[in-house]
Design goal:
The chain is α/β, with parallel strands linked by helices. It is built from eight helices and eleven strands. Helix 1 (66-76) packs parallel to helix 2 and helix 5 packs parallel to helix 6 (214-224). InterPro entries: Aldolase_TIM, Organic_radical-activating, rSAM, rSAM_sf.
Length: 271
């Protein structure tokens, strides 16, 4: 069975595997895959958060068979599996991978989703929903799609009993403090104890937006805390205490221009 898994990354010290699936049902203007296709967590890619975009990264051309994905996970002896996007819930193989890892390795499976499709949660232990915006006009402008289904699915996921959290990207002057407040208020209407993470935007695609300052991130956290009890921020500059390597494609393959045009699509900001 062919999957849409195009990248598996692994953090050996924490035994976390990151599975990246291609295809998405949203068309976010700030999608990070426009900038770097292969995992931002890779040691080789960590500096690219602060890089200026240089065009649009090339889509992946190689995808894994289901048996190869499962065999790779077994070989790594993983304890955590993160199902990431674009949007992993679109791939019919995702629940099969989750089941195999859960049953045979006893993994903790974490699904990152935009919530546009109600995911199969039978073998998922945690869910993180990326809420792009609450205002319907803003969501339509940013993603090209209505958020009606997402706002309906969010409480359904909560009622499933699977632990969940939510994330929103802070974009100064666009998805700003006021919008963060609207998203937080919506989350609180489901449960004020749901964990909410505010992520600092990094420049991707052909957009006019800039990265938020540390003060702007903290201001958004303060706004969200008016409604929610567990609010955190990721500024993109935090130190990381573990390494991440690419398993598929291999690090050696990613070093070639043929398989890593995304790395060539950025250049560091001069200091």
């Amino acid at each position: 069975m062919q999957t849409r898994v195009y990248n598996i990354a692994f953090a050996e010290s924490t035994r976390q595997a990151y599975l990246h699936f291609w295809d998405c049902n949203l068309h976010c203007r700030g999608c990070g895959c426009q900038k770097v296709v292969y995992d931002f967590m890779l040691d080789r890619n960590m500096h690219l958060h602060l890089a200026e975009p240089r065009g649009i990264a090339t889509s992946p051309q190689r995808f894994m068979d289901l048996d190869d994905v499962i065999e790779t996970l077994f070989g790594l002896e993983v304890r955590w599996v993160l199902f990431e996007g674009q949007e992993s819930s679109l791939d019919p193989s995702m629940p099969l991978i989750a089941e195999a890892a859960h049953r045979r390795l006893g993994t903790t499976n974490v699904l990152l989703t935009n919530g546009m499709k109600m995911p199969d949660l039978r073998y998922i232990d945690k869910v993180s929903v990326g809420l792009k915006a609450f205002s319907k006009e803003l969501h339509q402008d940013y993603t090209g799609e209505s958020n009606k289904t997402i706002l309906e699915n969010f409480p359904k996921i909560f009622k499933s009993g699977v632990p969940m959290m939510a994330e929103t990207v802070l974009i100064p002057g666009y998805i700003d403090h006021d919008e963060i407040g609207r998203v937080a208020k919506f989350i609180a209407s489901v449960d004020p104890n749901i964990r909410y993470q505010i992520d600092a935007y990094f420049k991707a695609g052909n957009n006019p937006w800039r990265r938020p300052t540390s003060d702007e991130v903290e201001r958004s956290v303060a706004v969200a805390r008016k409604y929610l009890n567990n609010v955190y921020a990721y500024k993109g500059t935090e130190p990381r205490e573990f390494g991440v390597k690419s398993i598929f494609p291999t690090e050696e393959e990613l070093a070639t221009r043929e398989l890593a045009p995304a790395v060539d699509a950025c250049e560091p900001i001069p200091t």
